[in-house]
C-alpha cells in the first residue's frame, strides 16, 4: 500500500521569522501512519527549518538541485551537498524551472540521475500547459516528459512523480478529481509498461491549487497518492487541513 505524501513547495517565499512561525503552527498537526509530510523551503533556510522540525515527523527537502557534480558552477548546489546536509528529497523539473529558467527534459533527466546517485529521492514534476490540454495533447506531453527521465534512469519505487497541470499552478483552478485521476491512471499504466511492478509502489502526487477544500476528493482517487502544494503550504492552517485530508 502506498503511503500518502503531502509535500509543501515554499518556492521563493518566507524569511527566518515567518518560517519559524509556519513550522510552529504545524507542530500540533497529527500525521497519520499512512502519511508522510515534507516541506521544501528555499535552500538558505534549510538548516534552520531542519532544526525547527527536529522533534516532529515533518521531513525537509530541497526545491532544486544541480545537473552537475561539484566544480566551477557558480550558484549551483549539487545533490551530494543536499545529501551531506541530511536531505532525502528534492523537487526536480517544476514547471517554473522549466518555463522561467529554461530547464529542458534532458536537464531534468540529468538532475534525476544526480539526485539518485547521491541517495536523494526525486520528486519529478511533469504537466501540460492549457494550450496543450485544449488541443488534446495533455497525455502525450506528460508521457514525453516521463520518457526523457526514463531514457537515462532506471525506474525506482523511491521515485515520486508530481503531475502538475501548468494551468492549475497558483491560479486557483484545480483539475477535477476525475480529470486528475484519468491522468494519474494513464501515468501508472505507462510506468507499469516501462517499469513493471515497481510502478505500483511509485507515488504519483497531484499539484495545482490543492487546498483543504479539494484535498479529500483528490486523495480519494485510486492513483492519487498525495499532493505537491504551493500557496496553501505557506499557511499552517491550510497545510494542516490538507494533511488531515490525507490522514482520513
Ligand atoms: P499551487 O502550486 O499549490 O500554489 O498551485 C503548486 C506547485 O507549484 O507545486
DSSP helical segment count: 11
- Ligand inventory: 2-phosphoglycolic acid
Strand order of the largest sheet: 3-2-1-8-7-6-5-4
Uncertain runs with pLDDT below 50, 5 residues or more?
none
Order of helices and strands: EHEHEHEHHEHHEHHEHEH
CATH topology: TIM Barrel
The Cα radius of gyration reads 17 Å
Oligomer: single chain
Superfamily at the CATH H level? Aldolase class I
Structural class: alpha/beta
Query: What is the molecular shape?
Result: globular
Please, could you describe this protein's structure?
- 43% of the residues lie in helices and 15% in strands.
- With 248 residues, the protein is of the alpha/beta class.
- The chain has a single domain, classed as Alpha-Beta Barrel (TIM Barrel).
- Strands 3-2-1-8-7-6-5-4 form an eight-stranded parallel sheet.
- β7, α10 and β8 form a beta-alpha-beta unit.
- The protein is globular.
- The two termini are 15 Å apart.
- The mean pLDDT is 97.
- Bound molecules: 2-phosphoglycolic acid (PGA).
- 2-phosphoglycolic acid binds next to β8.
- The site of 2-phosphoglycolic acid has 13 residues, from β8.
Topology readout:
Blueprint (H helix, E strand, L loop, with lengths): L3 E6 L6 H11 L8 E6 L5 H7 L5 E3 L18 H6 L4 E4 L2 H6 L4 H14 L2 E6 L3 H5 L3 H15 L7 E4 L13 H19 L2 H4 L1 E5 L4 H8 L6 E4 L6 H12 L1
Parallel strand pairs: 1-2, 1-8, 2-3, 4-5, 5-6, 6-7, 7-8
Task: Output the keywords.
TIM Barrel; 248 residues; binds 2-phosphoglycolic acid; eight-stranded parallel β-sheet; globular; 43% helix
Task: Give a quick precis of the structure.
With 248 residues, this protein is an alpha/beta fold. Helix content is 43%, strand content 15%.
